[in-house]
Amino acid sequence: MGKKSRRKAKYRAGGKFAHRVPVERVYPPKPTLESKAVVPSVEPSVPSVQAKRYQYILPELRHIGIISGALFLILIILTFILR
Fold it and tell me: Which residue of 11, 33, 62, 75 shows the fewest CB atoms closer than 10 Å?
């Protein structure tokens, strides 16, 4: 006979997580239609966040391309030499 599942203890009244206090979620206020031109955007735009987050990708791809090109060139030279 198998062991009892401990999963149900989370949801029981006396379980491990029963005494947890629920987290109160805070949502930003909804913008009004009349003040669209006046209110400056606080959050940066998505492309600038992604550009800052993935700024190392292009140099890494450049290095990978240079290394793979050099290895491919070496393979081509070796095929002519070893024939």
Answer: 33
